[in-house]
């Protein structure tokens, strides 16, 4: 079977991502074009349970820009998915209808479990040789997924309603956060982590892998990269001690003071502290001294899933 040229759009709570790739019958994806934009679709959803009109409009403008790029690449099929913010919003149908009418795209709302399953498809496509059993952490804007995957078995997934936007809006209200806010955040994360991990197999023998923007940003910051370099971020080993050092730096400065910090993606300044607190606290709670960073995740999994569906027709 020849390569399939496919596009995937991941509409997240904080970030929207585009990936266009040739997907072979076997082997890894051949990336042709990728973009991501921090659009904050989930702004205020934790409290109001509604997507804001201006946030919806930001996403529609972005998707329309990307639709032109998709057409230029003569893509065979495009799959668009939405995650936590749209899942939680009372006006999600309004969002789906507006995106369809303005862009022509049907958006699939993923459950936390399905989001995690496709994320694992993406992660597995880029693991170093010899790594088979994985405990993956996907820190999103509105939710975080724990995925335990053993070779030859279906992944075990736990999704919790705790992400960088939700944590920032609910608890980290000062700039920088107060000691009391940080303590409250850690306690919430520990409680949710213990509950989630109780439903997972024992992690002995598993490789701890992290994906999504918080973790890839921390890998870039640890290396002080002036620009995002996927080849230096993917499969980078991020030590817990390095995360703790970066967390101390982030929590001692205002958001404005973080602008321009080497490795920190622009417009992530107001949520990177929340993400770092989540990662550090999860790793300490689970006893994980190191995180293998994956630059691959849901976007890639969406394309792999789409290619599998098309090949069965």
Brief account:
This protein has helices at residues 45-48, 53-72, 84-88, 92-103, 112-124, 164-170, 179-198, 213-222, 230-233, 240-251, 255-258, 272-286, 298-311; strands at residues 4-11, 15-23, 30-38, 77-82, 107-109, 134-139, 144-149, 156-160, 207-211, 237-239, 290-294. It has 313 residues and is α/β, with parallel strands linked by helices.
Task: Write up what this structure looks like.
The chain is of the alpha/beta class. The chain has two domains: 4-112 and 298-311, Nucleotidyltransferase, domain 5; 127-294, Nucleotidyltransferase, domain 5 (2-Layer Sandwich), CATH 3.30.420.150. Helices cover 45% and strands 21% of the residues. The protein has 13 helices and eleven strands. It has helices at 45-48, 53-72, 84-88, 92-103, 112-124, 164-170, 179-198, 213-222, 230-233, 240-251, 255-258, 272-286, 298-311, and strands spanning 4-11, 15-23, 30-38, 77-82, 107-109, 134-139, 144-149, 156-160, 207-211, 237-239, 290-294. It has a six-stranded mixed beta sheet, with helices on both faces. Strands 3-2-1-4-5 form a five-stranded mixed beta sheet, with helices on both faces. A hairpin with a 6-residue loop joins strand 2 (15-23) and strand 3. The longest helix has 20 residues, at 53-72. The relative contact order is 0.16. The model has no long low-confidence stretch (mean pLDDT 93).
């Amino acid at each position: 079977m020849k390569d399939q040229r496919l596009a995937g759009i991941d509409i997240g709570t904080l970030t929207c991502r585009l990936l266009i790739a040739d997907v072979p019958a076997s082997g890894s994806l051949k990336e042709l074009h990728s973009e991501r934009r921090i659009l904050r679709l989930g702004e205020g959803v934790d409290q109001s349970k509604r997507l804001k009109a201006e946030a919806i409009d930001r996403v529609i403008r972005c998707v329309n820009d990307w639709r032109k790029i998709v057409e230029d690449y003569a893509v065979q099929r495009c799959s668009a998915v939405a995650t936590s913010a749209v899942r939680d919003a009372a006006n999600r149908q309004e969002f789906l209808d507006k995106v369809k009418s303005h862009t022509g795209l049907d958006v699939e709302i993923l459950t936390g479990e399905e989001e995690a399953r496709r994320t694992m498809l993406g992660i597995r496509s880029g693991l170093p040789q010899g790594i088979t059993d994985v405990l993956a952490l996907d820190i999103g804007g509105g939710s975080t997924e724990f995925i335990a995957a053993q070779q030859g078995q279906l992944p075990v997934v736990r999704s919790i309603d705790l992400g960088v936007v939700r944590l920032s809006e609910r608890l980290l209200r000062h700039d920088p956060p107060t000691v009391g806010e940080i303590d409250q955040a850690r306690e919430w994360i520990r409680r949710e982590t213990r509950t989630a991990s109780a439903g997972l197999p024992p992690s002995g023998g598993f490789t701890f892998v992290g994906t999504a923007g918080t973790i890839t940003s921390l890998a870039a910051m640890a290396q002080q990269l002036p620009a995002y370099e996927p080849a230096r971020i993917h499969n980078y080993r991020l030590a817990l001690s390095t995360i703790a050092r970066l967390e101390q730096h982030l929590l001692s400065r205002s958001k404005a003071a973080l602008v321009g910090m080497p490795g920190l993606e622009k417009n992530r300044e107001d949520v990177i502290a929340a993400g770092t607190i989540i990662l550090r606290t999860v790793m300490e709670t689970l006893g994980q001294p190191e995180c293998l960073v994956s630059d691959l995740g849901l976007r890639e999994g969406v394309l792999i899933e789409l290619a599998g569906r098309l090949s069965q027709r």
